[in-house]
Amino acid sequence: MIEIFILSFVQGITEFIPVSSSSHLIIISKFLNFTYNNLLVDVSLHIGSFLAIIFYFKNDFHILIKNKKIFIFLLTASLPVIFFGWILVEFAIIEHLRNLKIIGWTTFLFGILLLISDRCKTKKKMYSNLSLYSALLIGFFQILSLVPGVSRSGITITAARFLEFNRVDAAKISFLISIPTLAALMMYGFYSLYNANNLIFSKISLLSVFLSFIFSYIIIKYFLLFLKKFSLTIFVFYRAILGLIILIYAYF
């Protein structure tokens, strides 16, 4: 039970802030030898995050329904990572990227890139200035998040900040783009479980969904409040320190 709580806590916190949920789940599961680190639990954790972001942004959906152009732009931005993600999984490339050296370097280097992007001006807003070009550029940046340690939210926020969107709207773009991505990830997980005759939800799975939902919702809410007052520097420092620790461990 404690394993599910920890995994849900880590998923909920790291999915939406720029620190990489996949790398944290890999590291924690590796060093603590978790027995619940399997596909069904992984799918359950992502269902929780998916439901949290849907629930939190329910009011924005009313705006997107009226502004179909922005909705199409956000949907289009999610297509590149879904396509390239399928390629990495289909050809078993993804497993070669899940090692500590890669995680260490990506955690450190993309943290520095986040710092550079956060020095850009903050003059654009999502509903006023998001174009097909900017959405696609953010979407192609998101492909890099398939490498553990890069962080999906981190790289999309980085891209949006380079395009001079303010911090809150950069995070909103990141969150809303994640909806189709998380949906595709869940569908692939369900498909894999179905093929393995393992599509049976247990109490552990339901608990994973519930806890992940709670932690994800809390983080989305307070991360957006945080960005109204502060920069992303604290996350850069965290990534730099964590990346260096991982690299020292991996090489020495």
Mean pLDDT: 87
According to DSSP, the number of beta strands is: 0
Biggest sheet character: none
Strand content: under 5%
Q: Which stretches are low in confidence, meaning pLDDT under 50 for 5 or more residues running?
A: none
Shape: globular
Number of domains: 1
Order of helices and strands: HHHHHHHHHHHH
CA-atom Rg in angstroms: 17 Å
Give the N-terminus to C-terminus distance in angstroms. Answer: 34 Å
Tally of separate helices:
12
- Look at the helices and sheets and give the structural class: mainly alpha
**What level of helicity do the residues show?**
over 70%
Give structural notes.
The chain is mainly α and 252 residues long. The protein is 76% helix and 0% strand. It has one domain. The protein is built from 12 helices and no strands. The protein has helices at 2-14, 21-32, 39-56, 58-66, 68-90, 100-117, 126-129, 132-142, 152-162, 167-195, 203-227, 233-251.
Features:
252 residues, mainly alpha, 12 helices, 76% helix, 0% strand, globular
Protein topology:
Elements: H1 2-14, H2 21-32, H3 39-56, H4 58-66, H5 68-90, H6 100-117, H7 126-129, H8 132-142, H9 152-162, H10 167-195, H11 203-227, H12 233-251
Helix pairs in contact: 1-2, 1-3, 1-11, 3-10, 3-11, 5-8, 5-10, 6-9, 6-12, 8-9, 9-10, 10-11
